[in-house]
Amino acid sequence: MSIYDTLNEQQRQAVYHTEGPLLILAGAGSGKTRVLTHRIAYLIDEKGVNPWNILAITFTNKAAGEMRERVDQIVGFGSESIWVSTFHSTCVRILRRFIDRLGFDTNFTIYDTDDQKTLMRDICKHLQIDTKIYKERNLLAAISAAKNEMVTPQEYRLRAEGDFGRQKIASVYEEYEKQMQANNALDFDDLLVKAVQLFQTQPDVLDYYQERFRYIMVDEYQDTNSVQFQFVSTLAAKYRNLCVVGDDDQSIYKFRGADIGNILNFEKVFRDACVIKLEQNYRSTSTILDAANAVIRNNRGRKEKTLWTENGQGEKIEVRQFDSGYEEAEYIVGEIQDSVRAGEGSYNENAILYRTNAQSRLFEEKLVSAGVPYKLVGGVNFYARKEIKDLLAYLKTIDNAKDDLAVRRIINVPKRGIGLTSVNRVQEYALRKEIGFYEALLCADLIPGIGRGLAKLESFAALMEHFKAEAAGKGILELLEVILDVTGYIEDLKSEGEIEAEARIENIEELKNKAADYEESCREQGGEPTLSGFLEEVALVADVDSLDENSDYVILMTLHSAKGLEFPHVYLAGMEDGLFPSYMTVTSDNPEELEEERRLCYVGITRAMEKLTLTCARRRMVRGETQYNKMSRFLKEIPLDLLSTGATFAAQEKEEEPRIQTSWQQARQAFRTKAFASPKPVQQFKVAGGNGPGYDVGDRVRHVKFGDGLVTAIVEGGRDYEVTVEFDRFGTKKMFAAFAKLQKI
């Protein structure tokens, strides 16, 4: 029996079509990774293609790792010659070899978001930009958008003629690029932009890679932006054997620059393209798929397809509406606990998905108080923690001393008595002489007015030169240990306090583990571990890559983070107009924005394999105000016969439009009340300086004796409010608000 006999008819067609442009429209859970891996095997086994000539690109390290593993299993000998990696990793490999043609050194540093913010702060200070008017994050977003469209600073300035605000951004963009070049650094956008520039300006480099990669496959094609499209189309222009796989119904990253037009217009760009649809789903029950199909059918900007499955009908979708977000969280956590206790599954079979990061707070609090293990995807990235960034800055300085940000970060970490005045004098000297910060440190004795700071600066420079010498003969793990030992970094942490230091030291140990893993995996693949390679791998890691499928914890994540994953039971929370779809989308005149939100809903529904629970609340706290919302319009697009409860919808139809109950609206309503209506009993105790207790159900509060707790109920009496609080250490207490003097935290 052939390995291709296990594929369905459409999958086989996609595998066997090897020459010319091919668009595979792969619905959620339709086995696209299986198709890609079998297609690679077919090219090698049946078509005699050299593994060296195959490139497979995807978006996340996790997806690339899974594909790499499957390719190795199915292809066997020679599979190591196939490039299977993300867009960014692919570009880094090309740039490490040829970026010197563009005026950079091949040991360039990759800047993450925090590095970019630090650099932008320095640029705004240098150019005397008012950051109240031109916010740093907006400037970075404008630069990123320009790079994604391959617009250079010079072009940006020309397009901005007559627009003072955009001219200001052009000045910032020019200085940003100048500083990046001086620091021998690239941001994530640059990795793609510089690779395309390399192809456009160096014909021999382009020809080399076009000959190298005669067969190109791109996964998640609906998420590509303009520069990614430019990269793959340029690379594939010679042999035109470009196979793209994607689902326009799962295009949800417009805010990152993704252009759904790349997949919708593929046949217009490649007029001889073959289009194959994969509509059989292997993940979910037919009830879940019918709901997903019903929702996404309301979008106009899509290619028609309908998911189906042989998995059976499955359970109906459960819909629950609660009075508050707190009750919603309590119900979901209770359901998960009950199912695990009943032996119906483990914690890691459950995922709680939501539209915004802010929604995680109530779930986290409830999970903690219930003693349920959980993993929050999208919290503080491991590599964004201070101690990790400090140690990585040491490694970056050793690897690329031109990286001014890295050098300045560690010049006084741990404290060496090097003050800001000395640092500023070095910086001014470097700018005046047009040299790097580290280069200026090496000749610190020439800096006017450096005074008593000279000895300390020379000591730091000598230390870094010592580390550079050590790096030549040591592995990354050994080098890390030398840095920790010589600098006394851990001892310095301990001086801050034992409790604070413990968690940070654990993080440092985890970084050591990462270094050891990297060295081991390099040797297993027959390569040589390098400091540049380690820093590159760390820079390109994504938060979702840290998800350990073998650990038993409930997963909390936003819908954007959940794409590409699957779970037996999905809880999709906050299904309310004003939250999902968002208030901005509901009030927008642009129908494309609502269509993107609907695609996000489709993604959420299709993450569920066996059970799907959709929840919403009549009111919830949003940005400090109680918001009252209708049930989400997406819920109403699901046929009632697919739901375990349909009665709620009838009542919903009569509800008024989404509203936010601001203090102004409350006052207006009070003003409209009849003059002789019976007033409520007068409050004899003023609580928190207003008419209410100053906090609401679901808020965290602090009591002078009982400590921190969660407000579970507030009952208005004649003289005061009776408040019920579930304290973290002392259990549930009832008290009068005026005497309790609870402080909202």
Automatic annotation (TrEMBL):
Q: Which GO terms describe its molecular function?
A: 3'-5' DNA helicase activity; ATP binding; DNA binding; hydrolase activity
Question: What is any one of the record's Gene Ontology cellular component terms?
Answer: cytosol
Domain of life, per lineage: Bacteria
Keywords carried by this UniProt record: ATP-binding, Coiled coil, DNA-binding, Helicase, Hydrolase, Isomerase, Nucleotide-binding
Ranked from the top, the taxonomy reads:
Bacteria, Bacillati, Bacillota, Clostridia, Eubacteriales
Q: Where does ATP bind?
A: A26, G27, A28, G29, S30, G31, K32, T33
What is this protein's record name? ATP-dependent DNA helicase
- Record-linked PROSITE patterns: UVRD_HELICASE_ATP_BIND, UVRD_HELICASE_CTER
InterPro entries associated with the record? ATP-dep_DNA_helicase_PcrA, DExx_box_DNA_helicase_dom_sf, DNA_helicase_UvrD-like_C, DNA_helicase_UvrD/REP, P-loop_NTPase, UvrD-like_ATP-bd
Coiled-coil ranges (or none): 494-528
User: Which residues does the UniProt record annotate as the domain UvrD-like helicase C-terminal?
Assistant: 286-564
Q: Say if the entry is tagged with keyword Isomerase.
A: yes
Q: Does the keyword Ribosomal protein apply?
A: no
Q: Which reaction does it catalyse?
A: ATP + H2O = ADP + phosphate + H(+); Couples ATP hydrolysis with the unwinding of duplex DNA by translocating in the 3'-5' direction
Q: Where is the UvrD-like helicase ATP-binding domain?
A: 5-285
Q: Which family does it belong to?
A: Belongs to the helicase family. UvrD subfamily.
**Which EC number(s) are documented for this chain?**
5.6.2.4
